[in-house]
């Protein structure tokens, strides 16, 4: 059994890709590719990675056993979970995934990381985390990343580590976890059909493209506007609800805070972008972002 980890990063089209994988599970199986699907999703974060971070590896063991029973000896198990990005920060976590896979008969293991332009990645994470009961400040989050090369935050279910010094993180991962690591840019991941490059790395690109053409691609996680993002953060801070300002009677106290946060963000954004490009920039911006 060959094992491929599609290990994030977050905000690189992973949810859309996982939705496509789930809808193609039967067709891919006929091509010798097993994609585990739990609760209708191919995202193994909630069922595998979250429990593993708490010391419960039973979900991962089940995925490995299921794949070994379903696949021929040269078949491919594809495990997709953006939360595997944590393994870049914590190599021992990644080593545990490797050791358990080898114990279950995996003969070849490859890790694939998809990486965005660092400033775009920061802004996308800042927007997305507003959905998850975080209370973040744009400039403070940027300063943290620029000072340390990563950002961390948590919910009751999981703790995230978002790496931004890609080359250093991957080099550390190769030294301590696995030498067979591929880095794709966000643009490469989208080219020739979302995720096609992942299958191309294992010589199955043609199979995937032919199969993928049978179903429509449904983009997930629609981008929030700047106003929606700041409204979410203010609502969380004031405990008015998870999304939006909540109690209309308290709207007057929300609007000035939203306006002020947007004003401060606009004022510091050009300098932060310059610093990201100068201090971290290793991945070029996507065409859409560069022209905006």
Explained architecture:
- By secondary structure, the chain is an alpha/beta fold.
- The chain is built from 15 helices and 7 strands.
- It has helices spanning 14-23, 25-30, 45-53, 58-70, 86-89, 91-103, 118-129, 138-148, 166-176, 186-190, 196-200, 205-212, 226-237, 251-279, 287-291, and strands at 2-6, 33-34, 76-80, 108-115, 150-154, 159-163, 181-185.
- It has a 5-stranded parallel β-sheet. Strands 5-6 form a two-stranded antiparallel sheet.
- A hairpin with a 4-residue loop joins strand 5 and strand 6.
- Helix 8 runs parallel beside helix 14 and helix 13 (226-237) packs across helix 14.
- The longest helix has 29 residues, at 251-279.
- It is globular.
- Residues 243-249 have low confidence and may be disordered.
Quick structural summary:
This protein has helices spanning 14-23, 25-30, 45-53, 58-70, 86-89, 91-103, 118-129, 138-148, 166-176, 186-190, 196-200, 205-212, 226-237, 251-279, 287-291; strands at 2-6, 33-34, 76-80, 108-115, 150-154, 159-163, 181-185.
List keywords for this structure.
292 residues; alpha/beta; two-stranded antiparallel ribbon; 15 helices; 7 strands; globular
- In total, the number of strands is 7
Annotation field: number of helices: 15
Could you tell me the radius of gyration in angstroms?
20 Å
Low-confidence stretches: 243-249
Ends distance = 44 Å
Q: Largest sheet, if any?
A: 5 strands, parallel
Rounded mean pLDDT is 91
Helix-strand makeup class: alpha/beta
State the order of secondary-structure elements, H for helix, E for strand.
Answer: EHHEHHEHHEHHEEHEHHHHHH
What is the helix content?
A: 40-55%
Report the portion of residues in β strands: 5-15%
| Strand order, sheet with most strands | 2-3-1-4-7
Categorize the overall geometry. globular
């Amino acid at each position: 059994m060959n094992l491929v980890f599609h290990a994030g990063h977050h905000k690189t089209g992973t949810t859309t890709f996982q939705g496509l994988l789930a809808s193609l599970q039967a067709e891919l199986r006929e091509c010798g590719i097993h994609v585990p699907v739990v609760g209708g999703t191919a995202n193994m974060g909630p069922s595998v990675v979250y429990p593993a971070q708490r010391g419960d590896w039973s979900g991962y063991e089940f995925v490995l056993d299921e794949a070994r029973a379903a696949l021929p000896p040269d078949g491919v198990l594809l495990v997709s979970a953006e939360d595997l990005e944590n393994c870049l920060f914590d190599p021992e976590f990644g080593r545990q995934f490797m050791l358990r896979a080898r114990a279950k008969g995996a003969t070849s293991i490859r890790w694939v990381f998809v990486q965005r332009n660092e400033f775009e990645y920061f802004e996308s994470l800042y927007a997305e985390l507003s959905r998850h009961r975080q209370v973040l400040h744009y400039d403070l989050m940027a300063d943290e990343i620029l000072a340390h090369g990563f950002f961390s935050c948590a919910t009751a279910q999981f703790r995230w580590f978002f790496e931004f010094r890609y080359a250093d993180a991957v080099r550390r991962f190769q030294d301590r976890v696995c030498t067979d690591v591929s880095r794709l840019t966000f643009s490469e991941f989208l080219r020739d059909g979302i995720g096609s490059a992942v299958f191309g790395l294992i010589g199955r690109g043609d199979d995937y493209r032919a199969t993928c053409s049978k179903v429509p691609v449904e983009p997930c996680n629609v981008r929030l506007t700047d106003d929606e993002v700041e409204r979410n953060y203010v609502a969380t801070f004031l405990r008015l609800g998870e999304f939006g300002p909540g109690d209309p009677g308290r709207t007057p106290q929300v609007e000035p805070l939203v306006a002020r946060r947007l004003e401060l963000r606009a004022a510091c954004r050009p300098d932060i972008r310059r610093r990201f490009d100068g201090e971290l920039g290793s991945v070029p911006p996507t065409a859409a972002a560069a022209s905006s």
